[in-house]
Amino acid sequence: DSLTLVNVLARYRPEAKRRLLLLAHWDTRPRSDRAQDPAERELPVPGANDGGSGTAVLLELARIMSDAPPPLGIDLLFVDGEDYGPEAVDMFIGARRYADRLPLPGSGRRPIYGILLDMVGDADPSFPVEGYSAQHALPVVQKVWRTAAGLGYSNFFPESVGLRLSDDHIPLIEAGLQTVDIIDFTYGGSDNIYWHTPEDVPSHVSASTLEIVGEVITELIYSGG
Hints:
By secondary structure, this protein is an alpha/beta fold. The chain has one domain: Zn peptidases (Aminopeptidase). It has helices spanning 52-67, 93-100, 131-136, 138-150, 169-174, 207-222, and strands spanning 8-12, 19-25, 73-79, 113-118, 179-183. A 5-stranded mixed β-sheet has the order 1-3-2-4-5, sandwiched between helices. The chain is globular and about 50 Å long.
């Protein structure tokens, strides 16, 4: 059997040599392996937060940039196959594909850094610094978290370093592109109870949280990256 996966890349100001990569995965997990009810574990995850939230923020950024061209080039990357699983070899497939074809330094098409948005819609948001981001992309972490603090969102973006999470930013880091992961891994509470379950639905996602994340990224873009 074969499965066709599709990445979508939208480039704003393609002529600009100074570029920023913003990415999210748009796929959702095909099985709810963390469902409490064993009968529900073969159901697909709706993915309102894990898949939908980052995609929603990028689509709103696309609308904003269509109305007000950004001061630098922006690449919006929607990756497929992040959450296919269950083994690591079947995760981050779209991100690995993009990383394998990352433009070379000096080509004028390579981003200066990347920002991954994943699980950014919880009603009680907390975005501590993801561990691999702190280790491999600290200057980008400082830029993003200071931007959030400048907007008054330091309570949502604590500067403490949290878990190390394998995610779509890892293939990019391995390819030499500093990339940070903005992620709240306490979806529905500290036990992350809605993650990879049928409960990952729109009623558990907050428009206010999406707005906060979008505002931080918008400020970063229009301040020149």
